[in-house]
Specification:
With 383 residues, the chain is mainly β. Helix content is 0%, strand content 46%. The strands form 9 sheets. The chain has a 4-stranded antiparallel beta sheet, with no helix packed on it. The two termini are 34 Å apart.
Length: 383
């Protein structure tokens, strides 16, 4: 069983501060003596179907996810194998050995396929599988690099964000800020929206950064540290923010979920809901998995709860993904759950390869794409 309580986790050195490691997780197993919920039986009203499946190779300790382009899918293994897959058939098109352990990826943009290593290496490949350039940032890359407007945005484990020239990998700007004494080691990256990179940080801070030059447009507090010990006061944003044309929202571990005006960063609302997972914003609603595994739908304008499903208690539920009439979420035993979008009740369930599903599904051709911890890449539909 994985470690279950924050105070039991090992502390490791990271750039002069200490870090609580969330790679293995402490949710989805015993926590203060509480067992993960057993799955309840229900009458299926929908069905998952596997359209194709391919093995990418084990992710190791990394949280890896696939990237999509117009006609291809790119996936990576923890041991450094990068694979191009045909998005219709699931057949391998090419496979290259990067020569490094991949800890962040896969990202894309500007005609590039991007991966990062635990040594701070950033590799940019063309869609033909040929290496375009290699660069280096200040520490390990734990999330997928992203590219837009001629800039590759790379977030490193020390909290810095680097803007690299998409043509040659040379650094064009660097964003850095002070870090609390104790932080959560996590896979938070950046979210790109209309020329802006949104990123959450240790201490509950959220920043809007201009992609082309790294200038800060605004910075706000999603959550304030609370408690008497440094462990209790951890309130880091450990997942990617979400944004649309009107607002940007983020959630903090042991903290709050909050939404802000996208242009100025003016606060709209906040609630005391904590999670180390991310959120999904779609039209009028915000979907999330909280710290205890409950899946929730909130009104994006007020934060009011529309529904809450508590039947996946402590199952380390990942970030939800909305597909048609369903909300889809994975858990630590490799189950994929389909919930009715209207009320959160179970509609369908499928078990993939039995290893954890930690990254949110990705939309793919009226279906979804899921990568498991053991490296299984699945294209599925639900109807």
């Amino acid at each position: 069983m994985r470690l279950a309580h924050l105070s039991l986790l090992a502390l490791i050195a990271l750039s002069g501060c200490s870090s609580v490691d969330t790679v293995k997780g402490w949710l989805g197993s015993k926590k203060d003596g509480m067992e993960p919920a057993k799955l309840v039986e229900f009458g299926e009203t929908a069905k998952f179907e596997v359209r194709w499946h391919i093995d990418l190779g084990d992710s190791g300790a990394s949280l890896l996810q696939p990237a999509l382009t117009g006609n291809a899918i790119y996936g990576a293994s923890g041991k450094g194998v990068l694979t191009r897959v045909d998005r219709i058939t699931g057949k391998q098109v090419w496979r290259v050995e990067s020569g490094m352990a991949v800890s962040g990826g896969v990202g894309s943009g500007e005609g590039l396929v991007l991966i990062g290593s635990d040594k701070g290496d950033v590799l940019a490949y063309g869609e033909d599988g040929k290496l375009r350039w290699k660069s280096k940032v200040s520490s390990e890359v734990l999330s997928a690099p992203q590219a837009a407007q001629g800039v590759v945005i790379v977030r490193s484990g020390d909290g810095r964000i680097a803007g690299l020239d998409a043509a040659d990998g040379k650094r064009v700007w660097l964003y850095e800020r002070s870090t609390p004494a104790l932080v959560v080691r996590n896979h938070a990256g950046v979210t790109l929206q209309r020329g802006v990179a949104f990123a959450g940080f240790a201490g509950g801070k959220l920043a809007a950064i201009k992609i082309v030059d790294g200038s800060v447009l605004w910075e706000v507090s999603v959550s304030q540290p609370r408690g008497s010990t440094e462990l209790e006061r951890i309130s880091d944003i450990t997942s990617n923010p979400v944004a649309d044309d009107e607002q940007v929202c983020a959630i903090a571990f042991q903290g709050r979920v909050a939404c802000f005006d996208v242009a100025q960063g003016n606060p709209l609302w906040n609630r005391d809901i904590g999670s180390d997972k991310g959120v999904m914003l779609l039209r009028k609603y915000l979907y999330l998995s909280d710290a205890r595994g409950s899946v929730m739908a909130l009104d994006k304008t007020s934060g009011n709860t529309l529904w809450k499903n508590e039947q996946l208690f402590m199952r380390d539920t990942a970030t939800p993904y909305v597909l048609g009439d369903f909300v889809v979420v994975g858990d630590y035993e490799g189950y994929l759950h389909g919930m009715n979008r209207e009320d959160g009740s179970f509609a369908a369930r499928i078990k993939l390869d039995g290893s954890a599903i930690q990254a949110a599904p990705v939309g793919l051709d009226n279906g979804l794409l899921v990568q498991t911890r053991d490296g299984g890449l699945y294209s599925l539909s639900i109807h």
